[in-house]
Specification:
By secondary structure, the protein is an alpha+beta fold. It has one domain: Alpha-D-Glucose-1,6-Bisphosphate, Chain A, domain 4. Helices cover 22% and strands 41% of the residues. The protein is built from 5 helices and 8 strands, in the order ββααββββββααα. The chain has an 8-stranded antiparallel beta sheet. A hairpin with a 4-residue loop joins strand 1 and strand 2. The two termini are 27 Å apart. The mean pLDDT is 95.
Length: 165
């Protein structure tokens, strides 16, 4: 299993997921920069993602939807705020309407992804920071923590495939 730990910190309004992979940092970075690879793991197995827009650059935007088991769709957005390839990615994210426009009821979260070299292996840490305790609690009640663990559990299979050129 790739998930090492998952830690909620209500005082810091954060959730930290730590995973490790048997692949080097550059290969793990590809699962973030390539939307076709990202689609294969962003979201739990029963809610696969489809990215309709993906500008992997600081200031870039991403729009996606996840399709549930009964065909229902949940929409989301990203605004990429920082990239230091292949070690750090930061973005704001939230829910969207079916046109990809952000909706504000749930607010936004800030994600920081770091990739650390472990001598040919990689530790990936995803640090989520929420706007309020209420927002954090709502996201946990919606299954965010378990969903992130399930999503990360799909990465090993992607990394076992040959790296793209």
């Amino acid at each position: 299993m790739t998930v090492i730990s998952s830690t909620k910190n209500p005082e810091a309004l954060s959730l930290v997921l730590v995973t490790e992979f048997d692949a080097d940092v550059k290969r793990v970075w590809q699962i973030w920069e390539d939307p076709r690879q990202l689609e294969r793991w962003w979201g739990p197995p029963t809610w696969p993602a489809t990215f309709s827009q993906y500008e992997f650059t600081p200031g870039g935007a991403a729009s996606y939807y996840m399709t549930g088991p009964a065909g229902e769709k949940g929409y989301g957005w990203w605004r990429i705020t920082y990239i230091e390839a292949p070690h750090r990615l930061e973005f704001d994210e939230g829910f969207a309407d079916d046109n990809g426009a952000p909706v504000g009821e749930m607010g936004a979260a800030h994600e920081t992804v770091t990739l650390e070299d472990l001598g040919g292996r990689t530790r990936m840490t995803v640090h989520s920071v929420f706007e309020s305790e209420e927002q954090m609690n709502q996201m946990m009640e919606m299954g965010m923590e378990e969903g992130m663990k399930e999503a990360a559990g799909q990465i090993d299979a992607i990394l076992a495939e040959p790296a793209r050129a």
